[in-house]
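thought: fold this chain, then report.
action: predict
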Amino acid sequence: MDMKPILLISPPINIGKPSHGIHNNPPIGLLYIAAMLEKNSLPVSVIDFLPYSLSLDEITERIAAVSPGLIGISATTAQIRSAVNIAGSIKKTLPNVTICIGGVHVTNDPGFIERHPDFDCAVIGDGDYTFLEMARQTLSGNPPHGVKMGEVVTNLDIIPLPAYNHVNFEIYKEVSGMDSMPILGTKGCPFKCVFCSRTQFNRKPYFRNPISLVDEIEKHYHYFNGRFAFLDDSFTLRRDLVQEFCREIIRRELKVSWHANGIRADQVDAETLDLMRDAGCRGFFMGIESGDERVRNELVCKNLKDSTIFDTLKLLNQYNFNIELSFVLGVPGETLSEMERTIQFPRRLIKAGIRSFSKVSFKPIIPLPGSRIFDIGISEGRIDRNIIDKYINGDYGDEFWKDWPKYIPEGATIEQIMALRKKGLISYYLSPYFIKNRIKEDIQNPKQLLADFQEFISIISFGRSRKSFSS
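observation:
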């Protein structure tokens, strides 16, 4: 058997630049696959290009130096242009190597490799077991071709933990300011928000055993001195498992600090919040999405009433969590006056005596493949049917977050939406409520003064916060 290594690649968003924002994490899905290959005694190497500023030639040289027998590239839509460019360069240098594409983009774009033949095969959905078999085939001299449907992983406790031995955490700390260990307690989300690009294979939620989750925290404690960041979309989806997880941390007397990522306003209660606080939870964000009930429930399909939001945030007044409220602007069918109500919503909360949140974000909707808003935009003619390949070809530019076309509802312009976003951020971050709270924190932590000044400049100059948990 030819034991050339299997090489797993996480491409950058923009070649030549390190990645930031929601890509401020190692490629945890790819590292799960690496761990599965290692568990089965297959030679594996991982190159994570996300935090590096390498040219295409430098990237190709590093790949060629491995002399791989099979290459697996995992890409989101934000990474797909770089993935195509890297695959094309590899084929010129290593014409006989098999290149496989996987990840969220190709899962939502199954015809992708027909349009981009530098990729020999693709995995749709979970790759943990399926890519393992493809690797075995390749090492046996029978490399795979075409589209393969991934075997769904339903038992999250039998797959090995991510192979973090392949990650350089120091470069993440240096380049991106990463200060906590990523961790995943669940897979999937049953909700159907109009902008969500979660694949059809990840609608049904699956949960890890809370005991094994705490075992992982103990194992990886040293990386960031007990600081962890969950990547779960809906952390409190199973109240019983969350409580068991928290009780186990308390039982073991672990001194940890963790961020719970996304929590729905209708999925919290005092008992669970008490346990989360006592177990080291320090913050999370809530997707409110809109300050208008019609938009939030009829258009976004959030199914969350104003009264529930107000009641939950009033309950959270009792705690000292670092909470961000997340809003979107430009939902199909939304009017400018409804967007205005959204940017004023944080002020409504403050006037109602709610003091539990410390950050807000307002984001124009990005129509990603797999989301209903993507399909709506194409059917309405507001998004080009060939948007993916036009982006890959550079027709829009090469900065994904800036250049990927936004969905703009009828009666609005992108300039109006961005002006509302800036207005909403200024209204909140320059409010007496926020400034008073920041002064209190800065007195206790003078080093925070510079960060707050940079935040002020970012909001005034660019209309965006530098500190969003979710962007």
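thought: worth noting. The mean pLDDT is 91.
final: tokens above.
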